Amino acid sequence: MGVSCAKMMKDKILQQSIALFEKNGFSETSIQDIVNMLGVTKGTFYYYFTSKEQLLMQIHLQYIDNILEQQRRIIDHSDKSWKEKLFDVVYMLIHQIESHGASARIFFRELINVKGDFLNEILAKRDQFRFNFQYLIEQGIANGEFRDDLPADMMTFAVLGACNWSYMWFKPEGPVPDNEVACIFVEVFLNGMKK
Amino acid sequence: MGVSCAKMMKDKILQQSIALFEKNGFSETSIQDIVNMLGVTKGTFYYYFTSKEQLLMQIHLQYIDNILEQQRRIIDHSDKSWKEKLFDVVYMLIHQIESHGASARIFFRELINVKGDFLNEILAKRDQFRFNFQYLIEQGIANGEFRDDLPADMMTFAVLGACNWSYMWFKPEGPVPDNEVACIFVEVFLNGMKK
Amino acid sequence: MGVSCAKMMKDKILQQSIALFEKNGFSETSIQDIVNMLGVTKGTFYYYFTSKEQLLMQIHLQYIDNILEQQRRIIDHSDKSWKEKLFDVVYMLIHQIESHGASARIFFRELINVKGDFLNEILAKRDQFRFNFQYLIEQGIANGEFRDDLPADMMTFAVLGACNWSYMWFKPEGPVPDNEVACIFVEVFLNGMKK
Amino acid sequence: MGVSCAKMMKDKILQQSIALFEKNGFSETSIQDIVNMLGVTKGTFYYYFTSKEQLLMQIHLQYIDNILEQQRRIIDHSDKSWKEKLFDVVYMLIHQIESHGASARIFFRELINVKGDFLNEILAKRDQFRFNFQYLIEQGIANGEFRDDLPADMMTFAVLGACNWSYMWFKPEGPVPDNEVACIFVEVFLNGMKK
DNA sequence: AATGAATGAGATTTCATTCAT
DNA sequence: TATGAATGAAATCTCATTCAT
């Protein structure tokens, strides 16, 4: 068995937890539910995780760290315009929901169940993501690509809100693929819906 | 005592529940927590509500029925343009979050805890709200007020997402009041952020 | 059923717990064990007590408060000599073991399971009991009834140790009754075993 | 590695267990706690000990066998008076608490956690120790060194109780060293506290 | 209209122990 | 000689709910 086996079980628990948390909610999912699905015992769960909360924390961290890193790479890209970077971030967010929908829905829904220091860490990173987004828009304004008569923080809330909310309705098997959604959204954000 | 007293107690329970559900989450709030705050006993709770779920359902229903009704009135208004109606709905949504923030946050966060037939009823009404919104946009397109080169459902998701998401950040005591947020949002959605 | 019934159940739980804690030890006794004996459910236990620890605490407090109070009365008695008071306290301690043996054995054995603030409160009272005892001996010394060439604290430890230790062997159904034990002990401690 | 290393590990486990059992109590100490402190795994524990109970048993046995052996040597000493032997046993008991305090406190506190045949073996030896002590006193009585108007068993309980109880308060770093405590105790036991 | 007592099912977590390697 | 993975039983505690009064 060895190392790969250890990683395998821990990972299986993580995946199963994500699936169940998404389907039934964090609070409604018991450790028993999780281990039953895997045919192991509760002891096994606690061999790999110190608590149910820590597991949730890990899911949150994985998600936010991932999109933060991608966002950083996009913003730091030297050859692109700020409009192009806006598109890249929007697409990245929606693509994340298409490729990691279950984690996404946990990330957007189950924040309330993260407590204490864990919560502060997550909140700080979520804020960081928003600040980076706002920085992108501010740069576009300074650059003359975006309008300068609207507050950057409100524009940020509008765009981010539209993207994040898609965790509620976007389905990979739906009629419109992620990149098309991103195109339409960015078209609306940049040029508006008015004829 | 009589009828008015009964209504008062039922209402006090409802208000207290909303406050606690918002603060700690539905699953994390026990009936004991609620009645403790009011200085009554659990029996009293069950005299007025048949279950914890039914109470949550009531909160959801109250919220969705309210905004559905307001939406209907706005759309049915004969003298306004579709752009004006768009603004009115956006403003109504954000104003609802400013005036009923706790209920709003429960409405947007705790859908997962609504089960069975209750869930279907709520989902149907949420869909109805979205369809009405999409109808508004489709009318604006037909009317020539909105672009006809983008799918109405996607535009709906974008605008609704931005509005709904504000439950996550909008604070009545914040620097930007609800009507101003609505103005900025509508400006972005109608005319875009591009210079 | 009313008030008397409430008191009855709480008291039944307390008595049953004392019996089981004595027999099997605090840590080895589960809430399940306790309620099984009474034919009720765990919920009932937690209706009356907030935790297993709090219950243990209550047993400790009851014991120490009781003997502290009796000690106070004996020491404050105006018409008796310090030698007589010494006897009275010794007898009181042994009599307590004879009449409340189970509580006594929990009190002397299970201190390790009292934690946090509870522990500090209990320790303070146990110290108080010892200090009062030492005061009694110091008064007897000052008064010329006891020797002044031995430290009062060590004499206190000796007498108290002999008394307390009897929780290990004294049995009400044994051959020597509590008052006789007290007489012999005091005779040894006052006049010694030397011929 | 080899044999000496094995002995070392077994001994390290024993010492660490004694330290933790004393500090937190037997039931409150887990095997995990013990092996964590040593940086090894639970398997290692079970290589050297068959169960947690057996380990406790070993601690008890070691203690009682040790004092039984010393007691035997003292009593069998031909050139000393019974009064001197009384002192030697008292001193030995208190010295044991000063030099092996942790084991002593486990020995006096955790008897309840010894079960079955183990318990019978320990109880038999504890009784043996008391009988030997009583024999010492009876010899002193027969010899005319001790009073013959008090029952030997009760005198035994008094003296042993005072000595054993010192596990509760004696500290090696305290103001009175073990031999001085023994002197004072024996002085009280022999000549009494009366002026 | 409201209470207080009780239930029963289930939640999280702990832990001594086993065993293949 | 020691490890790492896993078990399974049990422990403490929670909580929505019921019901006689």
Structural features, described:
Chains A, B, C, D: GO terms for molecular function: DNA binding. Chains A, B, C, D: It comes from Aneurinibacillus danicus. 4 copies of one chain form a homotetramer. Chain A contains 9 helices and no strands. By secondary structure, chain A is mainly alpha-helical. Chain A folds into 2 domains: 1-49, Homeodomain-like (Arc Repressor Mutant, subunit A, Orthogonal Bundle); 52-191, Tetracycline Repressor, domain 2 (Orthogonal Bundle). In chain A, α5 packs across α6 (101-109). The longest helix of chain A is centred in the middle third of the chain and has 27 residues, at 116-142. The radius of gyration of chain A is 19 Å and the shape is elongated. Chain A starts with a helix and ends with a helix. The mean pLDDT of chain A is 95. The interface between C and D is large, with 43 and 45 residues. The structure holds a DNA duplex (21 and 21 nucleotides).
**Multimerization status:** homotetramer
CATH superfamily of the largest domain in chain A: Tetracycline Repressor, domain 2
* Main interface: chain pair and counts: C-D, 43 and 45 residues
Residues in β-strands, percent of chain A = under 5%
The CATH class of the largest domain in chain A, by name, is Mainly Alpha
Low-confidence stretches of chain A: none
Structural class by secondary-structure content of chain A? mainly alpha
